[in-house]
């Protein structure tokens, strides 16, 4: 199988010149994905049903966990996991400030407090050596984020969690294909949450999933993603009508057959997509080795979700790249500099200096299977020229 849909480079007229345009991201949905969705559209059952189940089974098998539960987003997935472990008001959850706000927001949404630990220079992931210092009697869980697709040191995190009786919930939005000591997400934790958002490694536009080996948690999640009611719409549709009960207060975030249909074939070609991004990532590394960037941890497999470098005058460079037709993004300005968190917890500049430094300098360059080698070269030459 090979990656189809290579597109000819597009051009723009900018700075009085014809220039190449390189999109920050392009999805690679193929005919098979679209056909699978059309099949669903030709049935009466658009919401959660057999196609969702088919994807969940295949996804759990790919990850290597017993269970996968499809939901509407990784944000919902994180919140559901926290709710399952009864984490709420008065509780604390340790996490990184250098993530998309969804990570801390999920903790806030259940009424608990996100307790930030600065990141490590080498990886931009949570600095595991600083976790124990912030553990209190209120701490209930550690929520590590595998930033850009590089897994945290899950062995050490698991050890700390075991010593203090804490839950571990992974934010693996960037890390579907990543591995630590040869194991994927969900192996060193209670559960891991992934995202199928529009720019993720496989996508249904919006979507997410929880993977776990915990049977009881799986049953609870299946019920909790549909309000906590005791039978699903599919059960009521396919079997004789039965009244349902609502046994606990859940959420409404079930993955539909339509979303699942888009993911089934992408999952089948996930290794090809991963290999293609790896190749482009390595090309960037070769061409941009002079710039500061997160380092690889030996013994782990990168998911190659984002390629980021750290540059001075980042905002000006972003603007210059856009002027020259190159899409780029920022992952991330840390959560504690956002107005909501700054005001609520009185954070100030210097509280998490490494996350702040990266937040001020980081720039993510285009990285997706349909990107062409000559486009990577063009991005690197343009960047070197600007700098
Ligand atoms: C690290 C991280 N965590 C969580 C999320 C939230 O994912 P979703 O948009 O599926 O809710 C994202 C999304 O971009 C993310 O990058």
Largest sheet: 7 strands, mixed
Q: Which regions are unreliable across 5 or more consecutive residues at pLDDT < 50?
A: none
Basic shape: globular
The spatial strand order of the largest sheet comes to 3-10-9-7-6-4-5
* Number of DSSP E strands: 13
- Beta content comes to 5-15%
Fraction in helix? 25-40%
Structural class: alpha/beta
- By DSSP (H or I, 4+ residues per run), the number of helices equals 13
Q: What small molecules are bound in this structure?
A: pyridoxal-5'-phosphate
The multimeric state of the shown protein is: single chain
Mean pLDDT: 94
For the termini, the CA-CA separation is: 39 Å
- Give the SSE order as H and E letters: EEHHEHEHEEHEEEEHHHHEEHHHEH
What Rg is obtained from the alpha carbons, in whole angstroms? 21 Å
What does this structure look like?
With 387 residues, the chain is an alpha/beta fold. Helix content is 36%, strand content 14%. The chain has helices at 31-41, 50-63, 74-84, 102-109, 154-164, 215-224, 233-238, 257-268, 270-287, 314-323, 339-345, 353-361, 373-386, and strands spanning 10-14, 17-21, 67-71, 92-95, 113-116, 139-143, 167-171, 179-180, 191-195, 208-212, 300-301, 307-310, 362-365. Strands 3-10-9-7-6-4-5 form a seven-stranded mixed β-sheet, with helices on both faces. Helix 1 (31-41) runs antiparallel to helix 8 (257-268), helix 2 (50-63) runs parallel beside helix 8 (257-268) and helix 9 (270-287) packs parallel to helix 13 (373-386). It is globular. Residues 73-75, 99-100, 102-103, 145, 171, 173-174, 195, 197, 208 line the site of pyridoxal-5'-phosphate (PLP).
């Amino acid at each position: 199988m090979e990656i189809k849909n290579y597109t000819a480079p597009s051009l723009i007229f900018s700075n009085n010149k014809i220039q190449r345009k390189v999109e920050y991201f392009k999805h690679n949905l193929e005919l098979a994905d679209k056909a699978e969705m059309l099949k669903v559209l030709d049935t009466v059952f658009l919401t959660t049903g057999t196609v969702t189940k088919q994807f969940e089974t295949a996804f759990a098998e790919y990850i290597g966990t017993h269970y996968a539960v499809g939901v509407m987003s990784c944000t919902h997935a994180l919140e559901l996991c926290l709710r399952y472990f009864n984490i709420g008001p008065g509780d604390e959850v340790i996490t990184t400030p250098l993530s998309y706000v969804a990570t801390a927001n999920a903790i806030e949404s259940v009424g608990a407090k996100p307790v930030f630990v600065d990141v490590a220079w080498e990886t931009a992931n949570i600095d595991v050596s600083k976790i124990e210092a912030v553990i209190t009697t209120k701490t209930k869980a550690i929520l590590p984020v595998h930033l850009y697709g590089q897994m945290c040191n899950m062995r050490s995190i698991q050890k700390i969690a075991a010593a203090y009786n804490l839950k571990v919930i992974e934010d693996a939005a960037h890390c579907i294909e990543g591995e630590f000591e040869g194991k994927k997400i969900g192996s060193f934790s209670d559960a891991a949450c992934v995202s199928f958002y529009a720019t993720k490694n496989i996508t249904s536009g919006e979507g997410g999933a929880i993977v776990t080996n915990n049977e009881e948690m799986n049953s609870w999640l299946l019920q909790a993603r549909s309000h906590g009611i005791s039978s699903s719409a599919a059960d009521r549709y396919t079997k004789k009508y039965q009244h349902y009960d609502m046994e606990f207060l859940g959420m409404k975030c079930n993955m539909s057959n339509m979303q699942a249909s888009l993911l089934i074939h992408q999952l089948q070609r996930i290794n090809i997509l991963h290999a293609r991004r790896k190749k482009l990532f390595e090309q960037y590394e070769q061409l941009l080795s002079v710039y500061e960037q997160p380092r690889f941890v030996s013994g782990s497999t990168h998911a190659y979700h984002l390629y980021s470098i750290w540059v001075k005058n980042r905002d000006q460079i972003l603007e210059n790249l856009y002027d020259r037709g190159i899409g780029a993004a920022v992952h991330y300005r840390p959560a504690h500099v956002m107005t909501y968190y700054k005001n609520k917890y009185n954070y100030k500049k210097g509280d998490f200096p490494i996350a702040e430094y990266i937040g001020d300098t980081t720039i993510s360059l285009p990285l997706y299977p349909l990107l062409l080698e000559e486009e990577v070269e063009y991005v690197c030459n343009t960047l070197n020229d600007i700098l």
